[in-house]
Specification:
With 188 residues, the protein is of the alpha/beta class. It has a single domain, classed as 3-Layer(aba) Sandwich (Rossmann fold), CATH 3.40.50.150. It contains four helices and nine strands; from the N terminus they run E-E-H-E-H-E-H-E-E-H-E-E-E. 37% of the residues are buried.
Length: 188
């Protein structure tokens, strides 16, 4: 089990699927949200109110649920694994009201087939380390206007994974935590 680390549901416990998932640690989640909130404050941007987050390769849903706990209006979760989906659903129902989340059983490396009812504050992309879907996925997100003017895209990957910046995005911040690299991207 892992805990929500901030906001309304701080310390709420989330189930973690037994296999096929590498949950983002509490320290990394705290760092991610500190960087997001600092950027929003510096730019006079309300990160949460009437905004949504997208959690691709959602796993336990810890990142999207952390956003809900901190005040986001809505989170969209994309996950393809059946066993993982069951755990994700349990976690969402524990933390969210029915009108605060939607789960799509969909391969996150493919075109995202969804309508988003709120402006998108953040997109979390945390695939299994053996995958490297970033270029194609980021291009699709840009081409479909899912990455918007104020959207920050957070990419978590192995620090040895090569990452080629997609045209149309710039790096706001980059952090390395042990074997993990986290990039914060913004639309140009």
């Amino acid at each position: 089990m892992i805990n929500i680390i901030g906001g309304k549901y701080k310390r709420a416990k989330l189930k973690v699927p037994i296999q096929n998932v590498r949950p983002t640690s509490a320290n990394k989640r705290e760092a991610i949200f500190s960087i997001l909130e600092s950027y929003a404050l510096k730019n006079s941007y309300n990160l949460y109110e009437d905004k949504c987050f997208i959690d691709l390769f959602a796993g336990s849903g810890s990142l999207g649920l952390e956003a809900i706990s901190r005040g986001s209006a809505f989170s969209y979760f994309f996950e393809i694994d059946n066993e993982v989906l069951n755990t994700l659903t349990v976690n969402c129902k524990k933390i969210c009201k029915e009108n605060q989340f939607r789960i799509y059983q969909q391969d996150s490396t493919q075109a995202i087939d969804a309508n988003f009812d709120y402006p998108i504050s953040g997109i979390f992309i945390d695939p299994p380390y053996k995958l490297n879907p970033f270029n194609n996925l980021l291009k699709k997100l840009l081409d479909n206007n899912i990455i918007q003017k104020n959207t920050i895209t957070i990419v978590e990957t192995n620090n040895k994974t090569s990452f080629e910046l997609v045209n149309g995005l710039s790096i706001l911040n980059e952090r390395v935590y042990g074997k993990t690299k986290i990039l914060f991207l913004k639309k140009n």
